[in-house]
Amino acid sequence: MATLKSLYETNTEVGNALHTNFDVDYVIDYRFATTSMSILAHFQAIPDHPAGVPQAEAQFVKLIEALNDVGLSTEVRNGDNCAVLIFVKVASDRHLRAEVYRSRVQDWLYGVRTVAPEKEMQKNLEDEPVTEAERLRLVYLLITKPKNEGGAGITPKSGEWKGVESIFPLHDHIFNKAWIKDLTSKYFLNEKDLTAVRNRFGEKVAFYFAFMQSYFLFLIFPAGFGFCCWVLLRPFSAFYAIINGLWCVVFVEYWKKQETDLAVQWGVRGVSRIQHKRPAFKHERIVKDPITGEDLKIYSPLKRLGSLIALCFAIEVFISEVYNGPFKTYLVFLPTVILTTVMPTLSTLLTGAAARLTDLENYETTDSMVSKIFILNFITSYLPIFLTAFIYVPFAQIIVPHLDVLQLTVQPFAENEKQIETPKAGFQINPHRLKQQIIYFTVTAQIVNFALENVVPYVQRRVFRKVKEVQSNIAEKRGGGTTTPDDHPEEHAFLVRVRNEAELSSYNVTTDFREMIVQFGYLSLFSVIWPFTPVSFLLNNWVELRGDAFKIALQTQRPVPWRADSIGPWLDALSFLSWMGSITSAALVYLFSGNGLGPEGTPWNIKVWGLLLTIFFSEHIHLGVQLAVRKALSKIDSPGLQKERAERFAVRKLYLEEAQGQDAAEQAAAGGIVAGEKISRSTLEEEARQSTLRGHGTPEERFWQRQQGQAEAIAIGKEYIAKAAPKPTNETKKEL
Asked: Which residues pair with 505 in a beta bridge?
């Protein structure tokens, strides 16, 4: 953890860059070109204007106007490599208050809030101050919502806004530094810690940290119990399997109750009904059932993925069990190398395929995407162990003699034919294979994943930044336009930090949830193989939680603070894995208890009726325990949820009766802005006269006074674009 703190401290800007964000709400990274050739493509649109970038300028003007029309003020600064940075904030406090009040009224109308907001807007805001997460979320919606819903309709990298690379809020480095220091100095998160995460990064991220904390605390029992079983009992203990299965049921049911309590406490219960829709959603297509509406094409990439894993499994069995020639010690790692190098690429491709299928299915939200990601990870994570436990062990005597087709994989290394000849009879299985696999996935893979998440991105960023500097210098020498920003001295350190943040990848909490759900699956499905598994996960998760905080604070752009009322479809995944664990654990205990070798490659030694009966009883015991635990927890449920529902109905009915015949939108915007406040030069000059004389005041005031109004921002932005355009050579002029 000391390493995380030192990395953070050595990679944050100091001075003005660290202590202020100049009141900026969001930064829009507008990249009008990525290479000189793409700029020349713009030139070809208008041959008489070889020195300009008409398409880029037109889109930039449209971008500024769209932001201005919804009451957002803008400042423009030069970016890196054919980019313009557009700094955005709400033009007036009055506009922000109106948006906040309108959002709270909407929450009440949809049942998120129990009591209607005070009709007097100012009193409502005094009673419930605006959090940073709420402010940033509403500003982001103003930028991205469709125009018919009161937003600017700007969707990065899609439609008419393909030049918009990203829209991101700036990190609060003072908070981040204190946050990392605080997390590394304590063992457990308390309610205050979770509230701080919620107020800064939104409920969606806060739910992840709350889940991690609950999961970590619950792991203490199976870690202690598993350690004792690892020392005292034989592998594949029925006693361990029963207790572990009970623990899984209790944890899942407890978390269901816990996330409901958090949703009520944070005031977001039921907010999923009004969650942000996917920008690609087309309203003319209605999907009634997210299950029956799925596209069948999803099965094609899944089959290809399963085939790759099965092939690598067969190669590994052949090399480790059959091949007996030179380099066997090293060749046995060949399948692992294949999976390590190919699987990330395939997973990326298949995740992209899942995203495209979600677009084709036209779902309103990303829940369907999460379900597809879980299916993909179920296959990639658990299939190798399933193959070993239920294919290799029972059927090795039948399968291994037919693996001679894989002799080509090691033939160049063999000294004679006997070293690669598959045995026709008398083959003995490797009794340690299953245990070695589970150790790899629960220990080695966890360490590798942590390095890939935190260490590798840090190294890549440093290398890419150096490469970018070299490329910029080369481009400048070749006449590609100046790459050295002309920054105001007061803003230089701040703008350097912003440009660095613009190069970071966006944070996706789904990735972190996926890791924890997959880990829970190993615990539920296969920990009976190696009872030390929960000890490994307990140690890993203490580091993982702090590593994720470090990743959010430094490795990625600050996430948009979205709201959520649960962990979403991942809860269904937890329930499924808990149920599946009752089946696989029973099957593993039946097959391997005793000597730990199972049927030793001879399926005829398996009593099928005994296996099916064991699975049947285990599953029904699981369902019975689940029902009992759910009933027990419902008895100690939060004491006011039923009363809360009754009050919501009564208050909503009364309020609607009083407001009957009135325009809800006008009530929400009383004293505020109805359709977006148009920003003009006269408006800004009036506000400037009321605050301070030009050239005086705070650095934040001076930052937002350097460009007076929309026209000046557009003019300076065009100047940046033209300045960065490469000077056409004689050959270029001939082409144009």
From this structure: 556
Residue 646 in domain: no
Helix (H, G, I), strand (E, B) or coil at 236: coil
Please check whether residue 668 lies inside any domain of the structure.
no
The dihedral formed by the CA atoms of 76, 77, 78 and 80, expressed in degrees to the nearest 10? -100
> Residue 562, CB half-sphere, CA atoms under 13 Å: how many?
22
Q: Do 601 and 221 form a contact (C-beta atoms < 8 A)?
A: no
Q: Is the pLDDT of residue 619 over 80?
A: yes
Domain that residue 335 falls in: 178-636
Closest by Cα among 101, 90, 115 to 671: 101
Mean pLDDT calculated for residue range 264-268? 87
Q: How far apart are CA 76 and CA 491, in angstroms?
A: 12
Q: Is 697 left (phi over 0), alpha (psi -120 to 50) or beta?
A: left
Residue 658 lies in a domain: no
3-class DSSP assignment, residue 294: coil
Dist CA 137 CA 99 (whole Å):
11
DSSP string, 441-500: IIIIHHHHHHIIIIIHHHHHHHHHHHHHHHHHHHHHHTTS---S----TTTHHHHHHHHH
User: Can you tell me the distance from the alpha carbon of 222 to that of 243, in angstroms, rounded to the nearest whole number?
Assistant: 9
What's the pTM?
A: 0.78
Given a cut of 60, whether residue 569 has pLDDT beyond it is yes
Give the span between the Cα atoms of 253 and 571, in whole angstroms: 10
Three-state DSSP class for 276? coil
Average per-residue pLDDT in the chain?
74
Q: Which of 91-95, 252-256, 339-343, 500-504 is predicted with the least confidence, judged by mean pLDDT?
A: 339-343
Compute the distance between CA of residue 268 and CA of residue 207 in angstroms, rounded to an integer: 11
Distance in angstroms (rounded) separating the CA atoms of residues 61 and 718: 9
**Higher local confidence (pLDDT), 689 or 595:** 595
Read off the pLDDT band of 235 (50, 70, 90): confident
Residue identified by tokens 């294979």 is 433
Closest Cα partner for 207 from 537, 568, 460?
A: 568
Residue of 315 and 699 predicted with greater confidence: 699
Other beta carbons within 10 Å of 67: 25
Within-domain flag for 140: yes
Q: State how far the Cα of 45 lies from the Cα of 736, in Å rounded to an integer.
A: 9
Q: Report the DSSP beta bridge partners of residue 587.
A: none
Distance CA 244, CA 581 (A): 9
Q: Is residue 195 located within the same domain as residue 47?
A: no
β-strand pairing of 72-78 with 83-90? antiparallel
Q: What is the pLDDT of residues 532-554, one digit of tens each?
A: 999 999 999 999 999 999 999 98
Asked if residue 378 lies in contact with residue 384, where contact means CB atoms within 8 angstroms, the answer is no
Contacts of 617 (CB under 8 A, 6+ apart): 586
Q: Give the domain-ending residue among 101, 135, 169.
A: 169
Q: How far apart are CA 367 and CA 570, in angstroms?
A: 9
Q: What is the total count of domains within the chain?
A: 3
In tens, the pLDDT along 210-223 reads 999 999 999 999 99
pLDDT reported for residue 517: 94
pLDDT band at 627 (very low <50, low <70, confident <90, very high): very high
Residues 450 and 537 in one domain: yes
- Cα(520)–Cα(405) distance, rounded to whole angstroms? 37
Question: Are 9 and 177 in contact, with CB atoms under 8 Å apart?
Answer: yes
Task: Name residues whose C-beta falls within 8 Å of residue 319's C-beta, 6 or more positions apart in sequence.
Answer: 328, 331, 332, 334, 335, 409, 410
Last residue of a domain, one of 144, 169, 194: 169
pLDDT tens-digit readout, 684-713: 455 555 555 445 678 888 888 888 778 888
In degrees to the nearest 10, what's the CA dihedral of 640, 643, 645, 650?
Answer: -140
